[in-house]
Amino acid sequence: MITAHVVNAHNKHLYENEFDEFLRRRHDFFVHQKRWRPPSPDGRELDQFDTDAATYLLGIEDGRVVTSARLIPTSEPHMVSEVFSHMCERSGVPRRPDWAEWTRTFVVPDKRSTGLRGTLTQLCCAVMEYALDEGLSAVGGIQETYFMPHHGALKWRAEPMGMAREENGEWYIVAYIEVNDAALASVRKILGIEHSLLVRRGTQLPFFAPLREEGLAS
Amino acid sequence: MIDSDVFDFVERCRNHTATGPLLCDLLETVRNLGFEHLILSGVPLSGQKLAPMVELNGWPAGWFERYVEAEHAAVDGVCIYSAKTLKPFLWSEVPAKWSDTEGSRRVAGEATEFGIWSGFAVPMLSIHHWQSVLSFASSAKCCTLSPRHQVQLVTMAVYAGMSIQALSNDVDGDEGLLTDREKEVLLWAAAGKTSSETSQILGLTERTVKWHSTRAREAFGVATTTQAVVEAVRRRLIHP
């Protein structure tokens, strides 16, 4: 079972090695396997959305980063608002601090399985727990349609912002998952756990409080 | 068909509490796009039986029985290709390697007796099977789907697939599928032991070991012990 470490701009210094490992795993997955991104000479994958507005959940098991999620308030620039806004023809692009965009999820190859109790479900559980803790109403964004039945299996509800579409040879849809107690309860039941998967170390700021500007506090 | 019909279907999906009404609703909605029949099923790999994998059966009366009875799944190009691609496809787009075989042409020919001439298939992730596919069938000789209609159909397929997963009430799923003894026998098979060797290791008769293997094969609907080992590993029931 993973533990999901909450990493953001304020406690990132505590996770230098883990964060670097995370960027290398991202490079393995999004560059070499998915081919969504061009190779980077240093073997780390970063994009324009890796800013101080992002909060990461690093799923760690046996000392390795095996899975991850990146959450960004949709009130900030995010992938759907900047790249996929045309896929929100039904509802428009959500811009709410309590709606988080969820991106950059991978599972390392040896932890992938189609079973329902695996690493992916554990990460989903951690994301839902974090979202509830932080008072979010929804998490989601651009997703591969192929994997949507996984949400169904967790008994999660996902609201489409528009139609599924083919982009660069793959099918995607923009959809947001409702955050509530029932959604956390159902995924915990599937995993057979009652305990928290989250670990919070160092300074923790609320997910969607405005970032304080240093020096202006006085 | 207009987009709001699709989103209305998505909304209704949430309220269906059984597969029957979901099937009727989906059939009625996709009729507007020219599809009269559909099936949502796990994709059988070689040796697996189709019937236990079917989630929504909206095929014409008689055709499903014929398809299962004749074991068409093993030769039908649409079915074979459904295991090989993650992307939605028109049946007519199935590569000739699988569609232009004698067996596949025979299946396609028989299907026309039941009013099925063309179709569109949407592969999706499945929790228990290799993957699943929602296949829509039309009586039109050649299925012409505008890009907009394709988008509408995929969106509805995805939500139907999600609903089916939500309705399957098997939280404990695979857990009780194999007994401890069956798992043990599969583990030794995975380690390359014959039934005779396994019987000596476990202090059982060879006949009993074979009986446990048979039960494990039946649990997964597969033909060989090797396939049962693969299934058990894939579902994380054993960890060789």
Identify the notable features of this structure and list them briefly.
heterodimer; A: 218 residues; alpha+beta; nine-stranded mixed beta sheet; B: alpha+beta; 2 domains
Model description:
The complex is a heterodimer of chains A (218) and B (240). With 218 residues, chain A is an alpha+beta fold. Chain A contains five helices and nine strands. Chain A has one domain: Gcn5-related N-acetyltransferase (GNAT) (Aminopeptidase). Helix content of chain A is 25%, strand content 23%. In chain A, helix 3 runs antiparallel to helix 5 (181-191). With 240 residues, chain B is of the alpha+beta class. Chain B folds into two domains: 3-167, Beta-Lactamase (2-Layer Sandwich), CATH 3.30.450; 180-234, Arc Repressor Mutant, subunit A. Helix content of chain B is 49%, strand content 11%. Chain B has a five-stranded antiparallel beta sheet, with helices on one face. In chain B, helix 8 packs across helix 10 (206-220), helix 8 (180-190) crosses helix 11 and helix 9 packs across helix 10 (206-220). The longest helix of chain B is centred in the middle third of the chain and has 21 residues, at 147-167. Chain B starts with a helix and ends in a 6-residue tail after the last helix.
